[in-house]
């Protein structure tokens, strides 16, 4: 609950904005057509410190001087992103309040938020990142590969605990369900509210296998506290060249099921404004600070604008429906 | 290590580092003092200012802000019974009664000095124990978190003044309120009639309503009463040094407790101050004064919530796992600077952890100086006549509630809880258990259910881990002992009334 305090940032940005803009001086910045009327609130569905949170805080560095307004990160965590979506859906469609969405948004609108929110309640503005999920264990685990995991799961009939982000039906849970059906086994899903919580539980031995994107786990791979079992994606990750994909290990899953990070806003946002926001964000992604960060965390840049992203969102919702039906989560 | 530590201190050869420290402390002090704002917000607000700075310069400012903001909450807690954060609630329990007795200056003096000592002691522990204790904290799984939350809740019984039954009623109200919002495991709305309630009841407006606004209603009801004559805070020669020194035991115990509880990711400053307060009451020679203006109570709460700052730093430095919401924001700040907090931080960027140690220590005198200078001015607030103070507190509460989310919804929540707090105090139902249960309820429920998921529905998880068992036994004892005393007292009273029994 204490994270709500971030919302108070708005009350103070008036002061902060002048100093931020002034302190950045006059380096040559690209002109963007997007000129928000005030500080831009970017509403997050996660606690501070998570992958998506660091993404927007880094992007803000190059985006702020371009649009001439500060970016205020508003953390509104809550099951399945409903808290954040409520925040975004109630905002005026003027671009001053936008949100960051991930794959979980599409899955939750089909499950626990069905009837509360739908794809049509929002404007899908731009995609920014693709980020495959990886499965990992503690270095001292008996499990060393996906085949070990599957063998162990077969022997222990569904008692292997896999800890990941979100409740049953979340993006990471559905990825796990895809592995279950490809391998013909069952795992026990343990949902957490943040990636640091997953790392704590995995390192402490409270869950057997962890799920995350590469970013937050990189230091643990480097210090050899954890080893990777597999990447749910088309090819191996540049940042983790030794960890094979699911497909390489013989488990056929839909490799389009990667984490996506994009920008969305309240519905009825003019298409022209959406395009301006998308262009500004994509321009800011080309800055060196952002590129350094993106390469070090192993994410893949994604450049869809409002039209393509909206079509993508509808497509992926269809795939998600299929996955949820296959996992028996849709009545 | 000595070499690295010296290099940490040597960072302070740069005047920019000093500037960052003083600026961070001042901003933190003010942000902490405004109900509705707090350390994690303060750190997030400061991050944009750190973009162009050296990582060492920025981390010094952020750490100073965190520590000072954790202290700042004590000021309004003591003066106007408005704890701006849940970590300062325990400070208000004794700080405000002291203020009403004309001892606002003394309470503020004790709060800032013990806060400083809390940081100083815990920073020393941090230097030597950050790595091993953080590894130990990893043993806290869902079962342990549930048991820890239960320990926190069991303290309710010890804190409830007078009637155990009324304490239990208050706890029940708090637990019931904690269930409002989206279910953390399935995302189903519970008692959430509108989307604003999806997140659960917002804590800050509830705190402001229950404590500050209900106080306003009482002030209005009393009308113009005898003016409090607050003793001004004199120069250091006039301070009660003997009295301060006699707090050494309480402060040391609370600092250690605060540090250890702060290390456990997800526990944090408010649980630390609650537990330290309860322990201080149990070990005090004058437990009856707790809740009525005990200097020891203020010292315990403040030493613990500031020691929790160092505690929260431990898993951040040792493992790259945030120990509190504020350190989570700090991880973001470090990553933006291109520094990856994690198990390799000590070997790869030793300047960061050792600068943090150094800035915690060097920050203490700076923070205490700012605090003392402020205390002299603040102490006069207690002299403002009742009607005027009622208007000021009502204003602060309204603005604080609004600022906490930037919408009107928390203002309505604050008003509703102000009326509820007033009614409950009229019938002598204590407010502390409501807050405690509201803060701990969600942690308890989520982890209970998560524990049962990991154990595949078996209750075994609650009695096979020695840590869980120890915590659960502590909780049971803390629940049972006062209840036994209560039953005995009743039986004795019954016997006295009826000699035939």
From TrEMBL, chain A:
It comes from the Bacteria. Pfam families: TctC (PF03401). Keywords: Signal. Residues 1-22 form the signal peptide. SUPFAM superfamilies: Periplasmic binding protein-like II. PANTHER family: BLR1237 PROTEIN (PTHR42928:SF5), TRICARBOXYLATE-BINDING PROTEIN (PTHR42928). Belongs to the UPF0065 (bug) family. This is Tripartite tricarboxylate transporter substrate binding protein. It comes from Sinorhizobium saheli.
TrEMBL record, chain B:
The keyword Transmembrane applies. Coiled coil: none annotated. The keyword Transmembrane applies. It holds the Pfam family TctA. Residues 20-436 form the DUF112 domain. The chain crosses the membrane at residues 16-34, 41-68, 74-96, 108-133, 145-165, 200-220, 256-280, 316-340, 352-372, 384-403, 409-424, 431-448, 468-487. Keywords: Membrane, Transmembrane, Transmembrane helix. This is DUF112 domain-containing protein. It comes from Sinorhizobium saheli. The lineage of its organism: Bacteria, Pseudomonadati, Pseudomonadota, Alphaproteobacteria, Hyphomicrobiales.
